[in-house]
Design brief:
The protein has about 400 residues and is of the alpha/beta class. It has 11 helices and 15 strands. Strands 7-8-9-11-10 form a 5-stranded antiparallel sheet. A 3-stranded parallel sheet has the order 1-3-5. A 3-stranded parallel sheet has the order 2-4-6, with no helix packed on it.
Amino acid sequence: MLSSLSVSLSMSKNSLTGSLPSDVGDLVHLTELDVSRNKLSGEIPRSLGSCITLARLHLEVVSQNDRLCGGIPKLLLPRCSSKKPRSSQGLLALKVVVPLTCAIAFIITLSCFTALCSMVKKARGSFGSVYKGVLSNDGTIVAVKVLNLQQEGASKSFVDECKALRSSRHRNLLQIVTVCSSIDDQGNDFKSLVFEFMENGNLDAWLYPRDEEKSRITRLNIMERLNIAIHVASALDYLHHRCETPIVHCDLKQSNVLLDEDMVAHVGDFGLARFLLEASDNSSKNQTMSVGLKGSIGYIPPEYGMGGQVSILGDIYSYGILLLELFIGKRPTDDMFKYGLSIHQLAAMALPNHVMDIVDPSLLLETDGEDDDDDRYDNDIQEKPITRYHVGGQLQARRLEECFVQ
């Protein structure tokens, strides 16, 4: 009959003794279990891990239930042993750690803990790895970003990303599902962010598919690229002008643009994001409290490399690079740009009469199924890239001019 029990079960303040029965794992619909303020002892049943809906577990092992041990590693209880510990100091440390874990992190870790068991690694980022996982309660597919906290800056990236995502919500921003901040079974900090899963991966994979991906990925046509450019611009407009406190992304690039099943673009990875100082005048609104090199090589504004302050104009510069990249089909770090030539200079030299010489060749080969209307198609395919290059080139020229004037 235990399996039919749902919602919550409270047995606190009952002076209960002995150990928790293994049948507690049959409480598959339980959301909260409170056994605090008792005198329980023995091993925590591992079957508790089967309670996939359990969100809160109240043990209070410091002043009561201080003889509980073992069980689920995430609880960090001392190992069960018939021998008394040599020193009470280590045991005391564990007693202090456990209530902190339960009260703060374990509330969300139990649900994440089940999902993490079935994750498949998808990619590696600047501060950790991204996995594809499934939420056990409803089968929702998610992307789980697990941070490598041994890497310098990873913890700060986690905090910054949480702050930025907490303050923003837009259809062209990657939406967060939840966060996990806990301690693993080795006593190390564990931090991860759970996002909605983007079925079509990132823009980088579509612009530059690897050999093993070429069979399933078709090259983006002009309208798809134009729509992606509009979606990213919409996200930046929201971050810069629609948030209560404007946000600078600081790392806009193709691998941070994710595509859902409908090829709608979502800007993600806010690990380097910065909030602007609250100010009413435009001059101070463009500055933040953070100074230094922010972003990825090829997309970083020149003034950042010279110690300039982070501003929304930096995001606009990165967007201009991304816009040129969308239609040229070359990374700003391509080998052809190693000897003084940049992607911006390439586009500037091609204007106005030689744009078709540098356009992504796949755009020249595409057909829309209406071959009878050749003249209309030829005009369409030539005019749109030229317009995009003008916009991207003007963005770049304006940013470079401002950089040197300042």
